[in-house]
Amino acid sequence: MKKIENPILLFKKWYQKELELTNVRIPSAVCLSTVGIDNFPNARFVSFKELINDSFIITGPLNSRKGIEIDNNDKVSLTFWWTETERQIRVQGIATKIEDKLAEKYFAERNANSKAVSLICEQGKEVNDLKLLEDEILKKVAQNERIDRPKNWSGFLIKPLRIEFMEFKKTRFHDRKLYEIENDKWNMKQIQP
Where in this chain does the record put each Pyridoxine 5'-phosphate oxidase dimerisation C-terminal domain (predicted)? Predict the structure, then answer.
């Protein structure tokens, strides 16, 4: 029986290679897709934080559209596209809220502007006066005081059920491997380009 590579280790190897080669400003950007409360798919770019216990971590407000949609339907996907290595990774999995202690850690790593935006803004909600909102944020930052994590700011741990790795080829004969959890272990299928 052929031993297959652990897809989490393969992800780490591919991600590290891209980080070594890339010049993009936000190399951790990943497209998060959710099922909308109106049953339409929703996709947006978020920042991938790290892998913990073979799960992908992202953060953000729980009362944002993504937070509400994940609360309503925990089936999500992540899509990584890396230009330098010409590779794509698609992850499908189940999202659960991270523990408060971990949310505190990620919030503490944010800069003052990001913290102030998270404290004051209601992500995705309509605003009547954008300048007034911006002034409020700048005033908060200028106070140079500690900004505590709002209770509605946290993150999600995405436990993968499927991970597809694709390496693009000039011939268009792309190399695609699909890993799926079956009976608590990873199985791999080579799939057509």
Answer: 153-193
